[in-house]
Amino acid sequence: MDTSNMKLIQITDLHLATPGSLLHGLDPLDRLDRCLGDVVDRHPDADICVISGDLTDRGEPAAYQALKSRLQGFPCPVVLMLGNHDDRQNFRTAFPDHPVDGNGFVQTATSTDWGDVLCLDTLASGRREGDLCSDRLDWFRKKLENAGDRRILVFMHHPPFDIGIPRLDVIRLDQPEEFASIVSRLGQNIRHLFFGHVHRPVFGSWNRVPHSALPAINHQVPYDPVTPVMAYSNEPPAYAVVLADGETIVIHQEFFLHRDALPTAG
Ligand SMILES: [Fe+2]
């Protein structure tokens, strides 16, 4: 009987700015502090934490340094990913020890007792859309080819499909056909696909793979299937708690700023 299990934390879209400055009227660094504090208080037993891109809003060195300072002493390993708001060079300067693939992309494979966590780098410098070039796709394909019987979770910042919100669908992963082909041919070990970028809770399946996204830490994108112009909202932020136990995966979303208890009766 397979009894291996894992608790994984997903946090996404921090959009950190220069410490002390606001973004859309909110303080992203204060939001991150409260999120990380909540994780430490409630989930000190987490095995791994993935922060799935848009670590910063403008890729500023000071924003990466602020993130680095906040992660010192964090109780579990943290895997960092890039989104379209990030700057790969500034990230690598701030985090010189963070693993990268053989071509310098921030793509990582982390093995756990439960399975492997693959994190892709979909940043296309200077563009809002996502990209997976042939080098990045080759890395992903080889990981799947060599997976044996190990279970796999895949994280990527940009979703590889439309989610029904036009202003987000125009900046999804560009030309996802080759990625979809690799998943279809070699992805039998993939148990779940996680993404960021959309700043709201989204769940479903794609190519028979279950997927999910979660609210961002700072600002959210309201559901609007019509308006093409980007707009943001102050819907509640959240992080995800992924409980993997053998072939069962359960995902909770923790709305860490909204824990006020209600009266039990009346
Ligand atoms: Fe974002």
Topology, please?
Elements: E1 5-11, H1 28-42, E2 48-52, H2 61-71, E3 78-81, H3 88-94, E4 108-111, E5 116-119, H4 134-145, E6 152-156, H5 166-169, H6 177-186, E7 190-195, E8 202-206, E9 209-213, E10 239-245, E11 248-254
Parallel strand pairs: 1-2, 2-3, 5-6, 6-7, 7-9
Antiparallel strand pairs: 1-10, 4-5, 8-9, 10-11
The structure holds fe (ii) ion.
Fe (ii) ion (FE2) is lined by residues 13, 15, 54, 83, 85, 197, 199, 216.
Give an overview in words.
The chain is an alpha/beta fold and 266 residues long. The protein has one domain (5-254): Metallo-dependent phosphatases (Purple Acid Phosphatase, chain A, domain 2), CATH 3.60.21.10. Helix content is 22%, strand content 22%. The chain has helices spanning 28-42, 61-71, 88-94, 134-145, 166-169, 177-186, and strands spanning 5-11, 48-52, 78-81, 108-111, 116-119, 152-156, 190-195, 202-206, 209-213, 239-245, 248-254. It has a six-stranded mixed beta sheet, covered by helices on one side. Strands 3-2-1-10-11 form a five-stranded mixed beta sheet, with no helix packed on it. Helix 1 packs parallel to helix 2. The N and C termini lie far apart (47 Å). 38% of the residues are buried. The mean pLDDT is 97. Bound molecules: fe (ii) ion. Fe (ii) ion (FE2) binds next to loops.
